[in-house]
Amino acid sequence: MNKILVVAHKEFRDGFRNYWVLAAAGVYAILALAIAYFGAVTAGHVGFTSFDATIASLTTLAAFVIPLIGLLIAHDTIVGERDDGTLPLLLSYPVSRSDLVAGKFLGHSAVLTVATIAGFGAAVAAIGIATPEIRTPAAWSSIANFLVSASLLGASFVGIACLISTATSEKARAAGLAFLSWFFVVVVFDLVLLGVLVLTGGNAIERAIYPYLLLLNPIDVFRLINLTGLGGSGGNAFFIGMTAAHVYPPAVLYAALVAWIAAPLGVVAFIFRRQEI
Amino acid sequence: MPNAIEFAEITKRYGAATALDGISAHIPPGQVVGLLGHNGAGKTTLMKLALGLINPTNGRACVLGLAPNTVEFREARSRIGYLPENVAFYGNLTGREIIDYLARLKGAPAGEAGVLLERVGLAAAADRRIRTYSKGMRQRVGLAQALLGSPDLFLFDEPTTGLDPSATRQFFELVNQLRASGKTVVISSHLLAELEPHLDSALILKNGKLVAHGTIAQMYDAAGLADTITIRFSGKPNGLLREAWISTLPSPPRMRGPSVVELDVPQARKLDVMRHLMGSRNLSDIVVREPSLVRLYTTISSAAPAASDKVNSDEQDSRRRA
Q: The pTM is what?
């Protein structure tokens, strides 16, 4: 455990030193404020609207940017060391490969969590100051739920990035694969599900299996955690439509998100242990 | 005392290519051992195998009493100092931060970084980022990290690459200190001349095969290397070339100019030959050159048959006999 923390501390410090934390938090805060303020522009007005609409907007935003930043900061964590030639030296030290990956995962996840809480937290605080009526216990609970699930979402994409980084032999290839992964989980996956649903009109079989299919995408799990309690507001009507037949208890959804962290890391440990350096 | 390293019938293949072919050797503790060979001979592969970074296709290795690919070996790595070829570090960290980080990974005492950076002559640059370091300075950081935790076994892969002559001399002083304190040091290099005075023994690899192994003196004997005597005359050396004893030497005399003759003389006949030479007419100078690692390496590596040139083995055998 000690070695894991040594590696994690180094990666965390690098995250601050390379301005990743500052940049990510800044991007989150600006986008969050912008989307919350201008989110209702299609309805003919600007400004912070209902709390449900704000959380829905933030969820949509977080589902796009957090996976991207997670993949961006961690896609080269192993392949970068391999490319730069630092990996043989590091693995000649009394640290296991699993510990090395676990440390890197923890460090990058911590960077992303700090950025998420600072960025989105700042935005939520600003919205709270501007609209005192949203300061209710239920709202704080939703915000906490959002920040925790967003941090876990980030961690799951750091895990996926670690997997990409371990399985590829060049930084450029890892970057390409990271972007493709993001495009697939953020855009293609839901688009295909929605397309099938729209074309067929949603038959009984689809309605039965779609809620389970959504668990196969950590972004959808994150959306389920934050949106199902809000109703079909904004652009989430289709999404809510897919899950209408099935409401998961939060514990199941959180377990699914944690599984999305554990599964990639398990595969990383399996692959990395067998690799020749 | 058990051997620091043992290799038993080690073979390493990458697909169809054979990187190491049936290597059996041992390295006793407390010695400075050269791992010699051309680029691609298998030196780095053998070092990585000793560290458990790669696994052998066949055979087994034993380093500090443990198999390198076992869980138990992981902790034993704190007793090994490794300097990889073309060592690289994180450019955004300072020399001190790098050594501090690696010290924590190795469980070395806190504060050792400063001492080691001073020992390798980097105290003044310790708080500069590595990306501002020259290649030689990075190599010194590599040396400093290898010394962390005072290991028992050192594996230096091409350690003097990028070092200036002064730093190279300091490196070998360090090697001598390590030997004096009973450490085992394995140095892979192709800079044989600078390595020779510091080696107790050597392993010579060619195309993944071990072509010689032993103390330097043993290998000179085994290769039949003779002293080279260069004789300079003030006139033509015809008288010498007609001497009867000349024809009894293992190889014919070589002319190195109109008045310079070179002879290969077995150690046992050196004094006898010198007595003959002292009586020669027009003698101007005599220079005796003892066998060197360069000659040994050239002789062995050009004579030993290897996997890729078995076709020429007959020719090489006859050359060796000659």
A: 0.84
